[in-house]
Amino acid sequence: MNPPGIGAWTAAETVQRSHGAPDTVSVGDYHLPNAVGYVFTGRPRSDDAQMLALLEPYQPHRQRVVRLVEACGMVAPRYGPRMPLRDNRRI
Questions:
Q1: Domain ranges for the chain
Q2: Averaged over 26-39, what is the pLDDT?
Q3: Is the dihedral of CA 46, 51, 57, 61 positive or negative?
Q4: Pick from 23, 19, 9, 28: which is nearest to 63 by CA?
């Protein structure tokens, strides 16, 4: 049970950094499920449950696998609106 105001994501991120927990996965992250799902299956969108299912064979090293996924450089396609380029030559 987490203290009030501390969610699962915050607790996981804290334990990863303070204790070096090799199996603590950051559930509730906005981009992480998409990154893991894309690297393992090629699907551009995934959720937390799918991410945990994909990482299950790697237990007790799931966090280490997540770090390797982040380091590999593959990113899921982005579909959101793009910011227009700014012309800063006038400044």
A1: 25-71
A2: 93
A3: positive
A4: 23
Distance CA 76, CA 83 (A): 18
Instruction: Give the whole-angstrom CA distance, residue 89 versus residue 37.
Output: 40
pLDDT above 90 (res 57) = yes
Give long-range contacts, CB 8 A cutoff, 24+ apart: 61-65: 61/22, 61/23, 62/22, 62/23, 62/24, 62/25, 63/16, 63/21, 63/22, 63/23, 63/24, 63/25, 64/22
- 41: tokens are 């299956």
Angstrom distance (rounded) from CA 36 to CA 39: 5
Which of 40-44, 45-49, 68-72, 83-87 comes out lowest in average pLDDT? Answer: 83-87
